[in-house]
Amino acid sequence: MLDDAVDDAAWQAMLADFRAHFWASRVPLFLQTWETSRTREAAVWGEELKRSLHGLAGVAGMVGYDDIGRRARDIERLWEQFGESDLRVRNQLVDLASDLQRLDPGA
């Protein structure tokens, strides 16, 4: 995990800020976008959901949430390979959103 790599107070403070930003910004954006999208046909989910998923994939591992980042990247790959209408894409989005809500330290 990243916080084990550097035992420096300034680094740890910066990492804590990045984590706080992840939970205060990236996660809510994804959850809001998914909540809006899930009530629509998959064909109209659009780029906004893809962007918010990509944001999770890109930042999660950097702030110590490797599993979240890996899962988001797996969903992106499924989406690209099989399309947004694939049931695996929807099921994994549901699971990811549920887990993010459960893991949210601010909830």
Keywords:
5 helices; 77% helix; 107 residues; single chain; mainly alpha; elongated
Written overview of the protein:
The protein has 107 residues and is an all-alpha fold. It is 77% helix and 0% strand. It is built from five helices and no strands. Helix 4 runs antiparallel to helix 5. The two termini are 23 Å apart.
How would you describe the shape? elongated
- Give the CA-CA distance, first to last residue: 23 Å
Overall pLDDT level: 90
Discrete helix count: 5
Radius of gyration over alpha carbons?
15 Å
Estimate what percentage of residues fall within beta strands: under 5%
Main sheet record: none
Low-pLDDT windows of residues: none
How many beta strands in the DSSP annotation? 0
> Which structural class do the helices and strands define?
mainly alpha
Could you estimate the helical fraction of the residues in percent?
over 70%
Secondary structure topology:
Layout: H1 2-5, H2 9-37, H3 46-60, H4 66-82, H5 87-103
Brief digest:
The chain has helices spanning 2-5, 9-37, 46-60, 66-82, 87-103. It has 107 residues and is mainly alpha-helical. The model has no long low-confidence stretch (mean pLDDT 90).
